Amino acid sequence: MIAMQYRFDFPDGTDMAPIHRRVTEKGPGFDGLPGLEHKAFLVSDTAIGQPNRYAPFYVWRSATGMREFLLSDAFAALCEAFGRPEVVTWTVLRFRRFDTSRAPAYATQQTTSIAPDTSSRHLRELARTSAHPHMELHSSLVAIDPQRWTLTRVLLWHAQPAPEPGVDLWHVPYLATRR
Q1: How many whole angstroms separate alpha carbon 64 and alpha carbon 150?
Q2: How many other C-beta atoms lie within 10 A of the C-beta of residue 95?
Q3: pLDDT (tens digit per residue) in 126-146
Q4: Of 34, 47, 88, 101, which is most buried with the most CB atoms under 10 A?
Q5: Model pTM?
Q6: How many other C-beta atoms lie within 10 A of the C-beta of residue 14?
Q7: Among the listed residues 131, 160, 127, the one whose alpha carbon sits nearest the alpha carbon of residue 47
Q8: What pLDDT digit, counting tens, does each position of 78-99 carry?
C-alpha cells in the first residue's frame, strides 16, 4: 500500500465553506475508484484551532491506481483550480480498520523524524503499536517516508479527539472508499 497527500494552504480569514461544498460535490465520485483503498478529504480551519488547509489523504492498494489518478482529468482539474501541488508519498507500514460502521468526522496526523540509529525492528514495533483499538477510532495508518526518514501516523476518528501538541487536527467531511 502507498499513502499519498497534497496540501493547499489558505490565508487566515478565508471562508472554508466553498472547500467543504467542493468535498461534498466531488467526494462520492471517488467511491470505487480503481486502486483506491480510501481517500479522507481533510479540511482544517480556525474553528478547530488549525490553519485553513485542504489536504486530501489517499491510501492506494498499488502504485498503478495512484499513477492513473495523477495523470487523470480529475487531478488536472484540481491543479487548474488550485495550482499543481507537491505530492508526498509514503510506504504504508500498517493500516488497520476498527469501527467502520460509520464514517469518521475527524482525523489526526503526526509526522516525526526517524533517528539515524533507529533499527528496522524498532520501526516494525512502532508500526505495530501505533494505534490500539479505541471506541471512537475508525481506522489508523502508519507510513514511512524513506527519502526524508519520517514516520507519519494518521488516525480517523468518529468524535473530535483531545488536542495534542505537534498533532494536526482535521475535519473529515467525506471518506471515499473502495466499496
Answers
A1: 24
A2: 17
A3: 887 776 777 899 999 999 999
A4: 88
A5: 0.93
A6: 15
A7: 160
A8: 999 999 999 999 999 999 999 9
